[in-house]
Queue: 3 jobs
Job 1
Amino acid sequence: KSIEKMLSENQEHFLIPAEMVANVQENNFLDHALLVLTKVRYAKIPVLDNDYKFKGLLSLSMITETMLGLDELDVSKLHEIYVKDVMETDMPTIQDPYDIENVLHLLVDHPFLSVVSNDGSFTGIVTRRELMKSLNHIAH
Amino acid sequence: KSIEKMLSENQEHFLIPAEMVANVQENNFLDHALLVLTKVRYAKIPVLDNDYKFKGLLSLSMITETMLGLDELDVSKLHEIYVKDVMETDMPTIQDPYDIENVLHLLVDHPFLSVVSNDGSFTGIVTRRELMKSLNHIAH
Ligand SMILES: Nc1ncnc2c1ncn2[C@@H]1O[C@@H]2COP(=O)(O)O[C@H]3[C@@H](O)[C@H](n4cnc5c(N)ncnc54)O[C@@H]3COP(=O)(O)O[C@H]2[C@H]1O
Ligand SMILES: Nc1ncnc2c1ncn2[C@@H]1O[C@@H]2COP(=O)(O)O[C@H]3[C@@H](O)[C@H](n4cnc5c(N)ncnc54)O[C@@H]3COP(=O)(O)O[C@H]2[C@H]1O
């Protein structure tokens, strides 16, 4: 039985639903976003809009980048810049139900994939950890 | 042929050698470490001592945690705190040659593993990406 067949038999378990995913709003200021990312400690999290539509991804380095001044670190700008001004927007997303072969391929370069429905609504994420747990299971 | 057998045939390719791994020194101040992490954009990197011995791991959230004041964000402390004061030290490490079954198991909960020799010298890292490339290859 191929690896992909074994994985697709498990695939309903891969999705971490939206309510369990830390996120920020695109119209938050960076000082608020810094606080959220510091507290949840995830490296990168989804950015949503007011209607819970998926808009992009945000990490702490995108925020600290704006703090690098000519001579010293400057936090004052963080209350003037929006998440949407610095977030990443060129990431791939997947739909549900997903093509496991496509997911395996994308997870090589992305630690997680955002699952987004046709109308742009954020429904959850699929992570490398969930896949690796499955593979570990298959390998034993 | 089992997955593990196929993976161990590839394992000499898993190691990313120390010279290609971004790192900071345990005696650096946090402002310097923040600059390094912002520029390299890796989520978490190894911490070494003066003799290139492996000491721990550092991420931006460990640094920004120290900036959270009572009312506002405070960068001044970053020039007074050392990397070794905030770094993570309870991570597992692996040796070379590694037991692929152990590596698969540890990579479920760790995005990368530091390879450390008997005398504590840092020799490189094994990442989830390298493993997933191998698995993608096997699955086709
Ligand atoms: N609070 C926690 N509890 C248990 N284990 C934890 C953890 N925080 C991190 N880890 C472990 O560290 C890995 C890397 O997390 P990171 O935050 O860099 O990278 C994460 C993060 O950017 C994102 N992510 C995962 N779960 C999330 C969530 N609930 N909310 C927001 N983002 C999440 O997906 C990436 C890959 O996650 P994955 O689970 O494959 O891999 C995770 C997991 O194995
Ligand atoms: N500059 C870059 N070029 C190409 N792809 C990039 C990249 N930066 C990040 N990625 C992609 O994003 C994944 C997560 O990177 P992250 O920095 O959160 O988490 C990384 C980072 O904490 C560490 N790491 C990887 N390579 C490193 C290096 N050369 N120096 C220091 N740390 C490294 O191992 C974790 C897992 O790395 P992995 O390769 O499995 O997975 C990487 C890789 O697929």
Job 2
Amino acid sequence: NLKNGLRAALKKIVNSSGIDEALIKELAKDIQRALLQSDVNVKLVFEITKNLEERSLNETPPPGLSRKDHIVKILYDELAKLLGTEKQYEFQPGKLNKVLMLGIQGSGKTTITAKLAKFLTKSGYRVAVIGADTFRPGALTQLKTMCEKANVEVYGEEGNSDSPQIVKNGLKHFENSNFDVILIDTAGRHKEEKDLLEEMKQISKVANQDLTLLIIDGTIGQQCYNQAEAFHKTAPVGGIIITKLDSSAKGGGALAAASATGAQIMYIGTGERIDDLEKFSPTRFVGRLLG
Amino acid sequence: KELKEKDIDAVLFELEVALLESDVATEVIDSLKSDLKQKLIGTTVEKEQIANIVKQNLRQHISNMFDAAGKVDILSNIEKKKNTGEPYIISFMGINGTGKTTTVAKVAYLLRENKFSVVIAAADTYRAGAIEQITEHAKRLNLKIIAQNYGSDPAAVSRDAVLYAKSHKIDCILIDTAGRMQTSKNLMDQISKINKVVNPDFKIFVGDSLAGNDTINQAREFHQYTKFEGSILTKSDADARGGAAISIVKVTSTPILYLGVGQEYKDLKPFDKDSFLESLFG
Ligand SMILES: Nc1nc2c(ncn2[C@@H]2O[C@H](COP(=O)(O)OP(=O)(O)OP(=O)(O)O)[C@@H](O)[C@H]2O)c(=O)[nH]1
Ligand SMILES: Nc1nc2c(ncn2[C@@H]2O[C@H](COP(=O)(O)OP(=O)(O)OP(=O)(O)O)[C@@H](O)[C@H]2O)c(=O)[nH]1
Ligand SMILES: [Mg+2]
Ligand SMILES: [Mg+2]
């Protein structure tokens, strides 16, 4: 569980003979350093370390809990605030779950669409894909090539620049085939591209998706919160996927997407291949942040 | 009064937060802070001027760092090489999804606008859709593309493009390579090999303006393996604060050549140190 993961990261305080103010201040400083180096949002970091210090110094441990264990619990509580608080989306069997991919250019949406198509197929769902990126050259080829490996059909219209229309036609195309999940890949966009945010609104109208997945690059820095917030206003985000965690990035910046949208992190991308998808584990993720 | 460490610390803290929030890497900030302290502690300043002096010194320090990295006029470099009858070879590298392929197309457009002939090497022979993507860009730009099948050796494709350029008297070769994590030794060996085989006149690191602390790891490793001579930072139009520029310059002492400011061919802006510093400190 998360507590054990934090214990490993807190060896210094756990191995110490006694807890005093100086040690707590040192712990707070170490945690602050680690979180900032991991790209965690600056304001969140200061909030967390301030709370950690104040609570560790002023709170009495509940009965049965040693002062050390209490401090670990406080850190656990504070870090847990970084993760989303909404209920995690669950794919409903027996009905059509429409999933819309959303994210900044190059974040890994197309790759994730293929990875998720394979993952869900292996989990027993009937999956289909709509390639609605009408902007990027080669996008449909990229998506089809990858989804072929998962034996998943991709609907797309090379040469049609009307993304909402492709979604409409795609949903019609897959209508009477009892699919459980339809994944919709879209073009990358960021919060300054107002016309693209408007396009996303139009796509959402047509798709009427059950889940909007925000795909976040694991290397992203301090701008994640603002970008995620803007996306959330455009299409309410129900889940997050953090990609490229096989890089040297700790992924702390991407975490801000959870605080900005309330959504939970569902999966992480750990490589370029179609199998490089894992379910999100808070313990491992936080351990990597503090490591 | 004579400046002591604690006088500077308060001001530095505010500047530090500003730099952190602008995506300057923490280790770069630490280094800038210690350089600044070394310079200012013990000097005598007006008490009310402390904040201003510290800020101005930090700004100047960063400005000097950019100056030390030098300037590159890639267009005049190409012109000089053209006058020797040889093609100018530029290779592009970076981690996955930073905008290398799109940047290659933008640079091709810029060169074409400046009346240079260009051939593009589709040396990403790995990622799905990569060859189709760059081929479509070449088609739109009316430029020759050299490509082989997926799975072919990127160094061979690059060498092919060089041979083509030489026999057709083409001014410039742009080599697009596959995205790669600097944590993968095999892929870093591969990019080293491509550069060894082709011996580019200029190697460009393509980084994402939105990246955080990882920029410094990428720049350091890529520079160690390839000794790239300059960088292009993409997606600056996404309201990126641009601290990545400082991280790259600090750890490699190579210049930022251009900023990518959009997805169209014309969206390539020469990096301007002064307007960058103004937006950071202004
Ligand atoms: N190493 C690594 N590479 C990844 C991962 N996820 C995606 N990539 C790579 O990142 C690059 C960008 O991925 P795409 O799927 O094209 O990203 P995208 O969001 O669809 O890009 P746009 O459609 O242009 O917005 C590709 O080279 C992918 O192979 C990951 O988890 N690890
Ligand atoms: N807004 C914006 N988007 C950009 C910029 N540069 C590139 N892009 C977009 O970023 C996405 C990824 O670009 P690519 O050129 O495929 O990136 P890449 O580095 O070649 O990716 P891999 O080859 O998969 O590693 C595309 O959707 C581009 O249109 C830029 O300066 N601004
Ligand atoms: Mg895509
Ligand atoms: Mg590419």
Job 3
Amino acid sequence: QGTEDTVKKTVGGHPVVVYSKTWCSFSSEVKYLLKSVGVEPFVVELDQLGPQGQDLQKALEKLTGQSTVPNVFIGGKHIGGCTDTVKLHQEGTLEPLLVEAGAK
Amino acid sequence: QGTEDTVKKTVGGHPVVVYSKTWCSFSSEVKYLLKSVGVEPFVVELDQLGPQGQDLQKALEKLTGQSTVPNVFIGGKHIGGCTDTVKLHQEGTLEPLLVEAGAK
Ligand SMILES: N[C@@H](CCC(=O)N[C@@H](CS)C(=O)NCC(=O)O)C(=O)O
Ligand SMILES: N[C@@H](CCC(=O)N[C@@H](CS)C(=O)NCC(=O)O)C(=O)O
Ligand code: FES
């Protein structure tokens, strides 16, 4: 469907993509974490896109099984949410993923 | 104003009150923290109250200066948000406050 294609193009076209909401502290946390390791994510603020934001969130759920924000992709691969990304960082595997994706 | 009185009655009438939103992970985190130290907070889910939820959130901002959720009160006193409450717990001062308020 059109919106799913949009998502695939986006996550394929940027090393790091975060689907986010501007008012959400978990979204802020993951964006801040990525910047703190020297990466500038491509951010899609779903709450600022009107009805298209809801379509994107539904498409993301179809594609990844995840209905929540933040929704993080690295190198086109679905990583998960805030907790998942923080866990990878605590395990030391986040930065290697980012290097491999050409994000840093 | 009427809504500010409602807030004052609520926070005066329960040892622990959390103004929350059901979809918000920071709200979930603070509710879970309080339960983990043996306290059952009185929870007001602002997103489930329709327009009254927005009135309450505005009243809380007038009364506390805090426009965000979660908004935590212990013993009728404004404590802050999720980060503030977690910090008190890390400093060891959360549980004494709860005991003093008669919450546990
Ligand atoms: N454990 C997940 C929690 C994700 C979550 O519950 N996100 C909330 C916002 S904090 C959400 O998407 N709620 C529904 C919505 O905003 O549409 C994570 O770490 O990302
Ligand atoms: N540092 C604050 C952050 C509070 C915050 O930014 N809350 C967000 C939700 S996570 C909020 O209220 N956004 C505006 C809204 O939902 O009306 C805390 O720890 O509670
Ligand atoms: S909306 Fe509060 S943490 Fe996401």
